[in-house]
Design goal:
CATH topology of the largest domain: Rossmann fold
Pfam families: CHAT
CATH class of the largest domain: Alpha Beta
Number of strands: 15
Protein name: CHAT domain-containing protein
Number of domains: 2
C-alpha cells in the first residue's frame, strides 16, 4: 500500500518534497499522474509531520493537461431538459435467464454500429450480487428527487447493456453506476473465455451489468442480445457529451494499462465519450464502506441552489469516511478526475 510507511515516506520525498518550498499553503495544485502513479492520490500522502498533503493543499487530478482550461468545481443542474437529470445503476442481477434478457433487450433500439463485440460465450468466473448497491441507489434517488431532479433507476434485471447503450446521444447530467468493475492483463485474460484473444487494454477493462454472468457460464444468448459486459472499448463508441459527472461506484474502475500516453481503461473511455468529471476507485473497496461514501457524497452535493459543488462534496465525504475508518485502505482509493 503506497500510503503506509516506508512507501509513503519515499513517495513524499520523490514527488512532493522538491516542490514544497515553492507552493504556498492552501494553493490549488493541478496534476496529471503517469505510469505507476496512476495508483496514487497525492492528497492522501502523509507529510513528515504525519499530516496529509490534502490538509495543506487543494489537489485537482486531471486526465491530461488540456483539461485544465475546462475544470469546474460545480455542476449546473438543468430541470428543463428532456433527458433525466440522473441515471442510476445498482442492485443488479448478474444471473438472468436468456429468455428474460431477450425480453429486456427488445425494449431498446440499439444502433447496429454500436454492437461490435462478439465474444466467445464461455468462461469459469461468476460475479456475485452486491446487496449494498441497491440500498445505495435507492438512497441517492431519494436525495436527488427531494431536490426536484428527474431520476431514472435501473436495478435487478433491468440494468442491461442495452439500457446503457441507449444513453448514446441522450445523456443525463449525472450517471451513477454501482456494480462490479474489472481489469485484466493480457496474460490473465487468457484464463477468461469471454476475453480470450483480446490483448488491448480497452477490451480488457469494463463494467458488469445485468445478466453479465451468462457469458461466463457458457449460456447461449438469443440473437441480438448483448451480454452485459460493457468494456471500455464499448464505451468509447458512445456519445455521452453532456454528462457532467459519471460516478463509477465499482471496484478497480481507476485501473488500466499505464503507458507514456496515459492510462488505457475505463477513465479514458468515459473521457473520450465526453464525460466531464469521473469519480472512481483505485482498488477494491468494501461494499458497505463504498455505499456509505457515496450516500454521504450525494448528501453533501445536493444544495439549495442549482449549482452544486462536486469537489467540495467529494472532499467532505472523503473526510467523513477517513474519520470513521482511519486506515487509508478504506478512503484513499476514492478519487475525482477531470
Amino acid at each position: 500500500m503506497f500510503y503506509e510507511r516506508p512507501y509513503a515516506k519515499e513517495i513524499f520525498r520523490l514527488l512532493w518534497q522538491p516542490f514544497q518550498g515553492h507552493v504556498k499553503e492552501g494553493a490549488t495544485v493541478y496534476y496529471v499522474p503517469s505510469q505507476l502513479f496512476f495508483q496514487v492520490a497525492l492528497e492522501a500522502i502523509p507529510m513528515e509531520d504525519g499530516s496529509l498533503l490534502g490538509e495543506h493543499y487543494r489537489f485537482v487530478r486531471l486526465s491530461s493537461a488540456r483539461e485544465i482550461v475546462k475544470v469546474s468545481d460545480t455542476i449546473p443542474i438543468d430541470l428543463t431538459g428532456t433527458n433525466p437529470n440522473a441515471v442510476l445503476y445498482g442492485g443488479l442481477q448478474y444471473d438472468i435467464e436468456p429468455k428474460l434478457m431477450a425480453e429486456e433487450s427488445s425494449k431498446y433500439d440499439v444502433p447496429s454500429l454500436l454492437v461490435l463485440r462478439d465474444g466467445v460465450l464461455r468462461g469459469d468466473s461468476i460475479y456475485r450480487e452486491l446487496p449494498e448497491t441497491e440500498k445505495e441507489v435507492e438512497a441517492i434517488k431519494e436525495i436527488l428527487e427531494a431536490h426536484r431532479l428527474s431520476v431514472k433507476k435501473y436495478i435487478g434485471p433491468y440494468g442491461t447493456e442495452e439500457s446503457f447503450v441507449s444513453l448514446n446521444n441522450c445523456p443525463p447530467q449525472i450517471l451513477h453506476i454501482a456494480t462490479h468493475g474489472f481489469y485484466y492483463t493480457p496474460d490473465a485474460a487468457k484464463e477468461v473465455g469471454y476475453l480470450r484473444g483480446y490483448t488491448d487494454a480497452m477490451s480488457l477493462s469494463g463494467l458488469v451489468l445485468s445478466g453479465g454472468n451468462a457469458v461466463w457460464q457458457n449460456k447461449e444468448l438469443p440473437d441480438g442480445v448483448l451480454g452485459g459486459i460493457l468494456t471500455a472499448a464499448d464505451i468509447t463508441r458512445l456519445n455521452l457529451e453532456g454528462v457532467e459527472m459519471a460516478v463509477l461506484s465499482a471496484c478497480q474502475t481507476g485501473q488500466g494499462k499505464a503507458t507514456s500516453e496515459g492510462l488505457f481503461g475505463l477513465q479514458r473511455a468515459f473521457k473520450k465519450a465526453g464525460v466531464k468529471t469521473i469519480v472512481m476507485t483505485l482498488w477494491s473497496v468494501s461494499d458497505v464502506v463504498t455505499k456509505e461514501f457515496m450516500v454521504k457524497f450525494y448528501e453533501n452535493l445536493a444544495g439549495k441552489s442549482f449549482v452544486w459543488n462536486k469537489r467540495h462534496a467529494f472532499e467532505q465525504a472523503k473526510s467523513y469516511i477517513r474519520t470513521k475508518y482511519p486506515d487509508p485502505f478504506y478512503w484513499a482509493g476514492f478519487v475525482m478526475l477531470d
